[in-house]
Write a structure and sequence with these properties.
Nuclear Transport Factor 2, Chain: A, 42% helix, 14 helices, six-stranded antiparallel sheet
């Protein structure tokens, strides 16, 4: 009776979920090459213009800020011919022009057209005024930008641009090929349907509950498969499938072969949105690493280097300067037109690259983990938790291992002070999500082609198991419909 119950659970859930799983695995193949389109931060930064040669001191600029004594983040940039300062405090973000005689430009039709022209120089076909979200802007947080103007351009890529009427910010930019692959990949894979995705809590709950039912279905099927093979061996038939009908036979064989991979993918898909239980790699103590290492803008007295020297050092190249830091060490984050971001040591009176020494790293981490054993080493190759299959993560980095119950570890980029940290709890999160779902394992580092081949094999295997499930589910529904019809006919007669 227990086996019959397991079989019934597997068949009913499989009938309901197989087509969804088939969609997930096929769209997963597309996701190897195409992601959901976005107006990325790099693209937006690329629209900035060179800072002017003549600029006031930062002290003069901040005298106009009401929260000048509590600035947490500060940046200066030039956009559409105007040089802006953004100063963020705990309470609010102030934005004003460097030239105190000018007001902020009005976000009107002319301004928004100028913004749009930066993204595409083709003529505009027409403009829609949106007061509800669309497929390419499905996120609920964007509602505060209503009404949103959607530009259609007459170019070969059929560019579409979304601009907020409130802030003048570009919210999304897509071209025809991105929209095509979006429908085949990220939209079905991430269930990015506007009616659902705009409510992030509902969207997350739906994915998690589908995953839970999928795990039950797969676990039941795997148990049945193992039991069936055991009975086959016990009856002297060897390791063969007892099913004669081809769809049942294929589902049994491929389900057994790929079942464990299907199970790990559904589990990891769930943990892309759900936190792992606290008992799994329990966190013994929370440390204020973010508050200590990411101080944002330090007091201006810490920045010995006058920011105007950066403009002189890179004439016509600097488009943005941000006052940043790592621990108590000031950094200028400088965006250049051609080279991208460079990081300059702001504690020096000369323009020199920022670089963290081992002693500086040890000092910063000691302020967080006072009295705990600290080991600092230079990591010159990826390890299990600082890894990128395509090799895009910076090396070398400082690896700081802490001798505490959580086995805390930091990976600190010496060139800009950015860091990652892991402990026992987040290691489980990494394995249950990125390890299982994206195969982020050290064995694939430097071998992206092998990684791609393995992903194709596993995804195609999962898709075929799901396809056989769809066929068997349809056959099951047809049988149920026939039995119901016969029952009604017998009752009528």
């Amino acid at each position: 009776m227990f086996r019959k119950l397991i079989y019934t659970v597997h068949r009913i859930l499989g009938t309901l979920l197989s087509i969804l799983f088939l969609m997930w695995f096929l769209s997963g193949i597309v996701m190897i090459y195409h992601r959901f389109p976005s107006a990325s931060r790099d693209e937006k930064m690329g629209k900035l213009e060179a800072l002017p040669d003549s600029l006031p001191s930062i002290a003069e600029i901040l005298n106009r800020s009401q929260g000048k004594d509590s600035v947490k983040n500060l940046s200066l940039y030039t956009y559409l011919g105007q040089t802006y300062v953004e100063a963020r405090t705990k309470q609010k973000t102030e934005k004003f022009l460097v030239d105190s005689l000018d007001k902020l430009p009005e976000i009107n039709g002319d301004y928004i057209h100028r913004v749009a022209a930066l993204w595409c120089d083709a003529p505009v076909s027409h403009i829609d005024t949106l007061n509800r979200l669309e497929q390419w802007i499905p996120f609920g947080r964007l509602k505060k930008g209503f009404p949103i103007y959607k530009f259609y351009f007459k170019d070969t890529d059929q560019t579409q641009l979304y601009v907020s009427s409130v802030t003048g910010e570009v919210l999304q930019c897509t071209i025809l090929s991105e929209r095509f692959w979006g429908w085949l990949g990220p939209i079905p894979h991430w269930v990015y349907f506007t009616w659902l995705r705009q409510d992030v809590d509902l969207w997350s709950d739906v994915i998690v509950w589908i995953s839970i039912f999928g795990i039950i279905m797969l676990f039941a099927g795997f148990c049945l498969s193992i039991h069936t093979y055991r009975m086959s061996i016990k009856n002297g038939k060897g390791l063969t499938s007892p099913y004669k009908k081809k769809w049942y036979r294929w589902h049994h064989i491929f389900g057994t072969a790929f079942g464990i991979f299907l199970l790990t993918w559904i589990v990891s898909g769930m943990y892309s949105l759900a936190d792992i239980p606290e008992w799994l790699g329990k966190t013994h103590q929370e440390y204020p690493a973010r508050n200590v290492l990411n101080n944002g803008t330090l007091p201006l007295s810490s920045y010995r280097l006058d920011y105007r020297k950066l403009v002189a050092e890179y004439p016509g190249e600097v488009t943005q300067i941000s006052w940043d830091s790592f621990y108590d060490y000031p950094i200028y984050q400088v965006l250049l037109k051609e080279k991208g971001l460079v990081y300059v040591d702001a504690s020096s009176d000369q323009v020199v690259p920022f670089k963290l020494s081992e002693q500086q790293v040890r000092e910063a981490i000691s302020s967080i983990h006072s009295g705990e054993p600290i080991i600092v080493t230079e990591l010159t190759e990826y390890d299990h938790y600082y890894i990128d299959i395509k090799g895009n993560l910076t090396l070398p980095v400082w690896k700081v291992s802490i001798g505490n119950k959580d086995n805390t570890c930091y990976y600190i980029n010496p060139q800009n002070g950015s860091y990652r940290s892991v402990n026992n709890h987040s290691r489980w999160q990494f394995q249950l999500y990125q390890g299982f779902h994206s195969l982020r394992y050290k064995i694939f580092v430097g071998h992206p082609v092998i990684w791609t081949i393995v992903m194709w094999i596993l995804l195609l295997g999962g898709a075929f198991v799901s396809l056989t499930g769809v066929v068997l589910g349809c056959k099951y529904l047809i049988r149920c419909a026939k039995r119901l019809k016969n029952k009604k006919d017998n009752m009528g007669s």
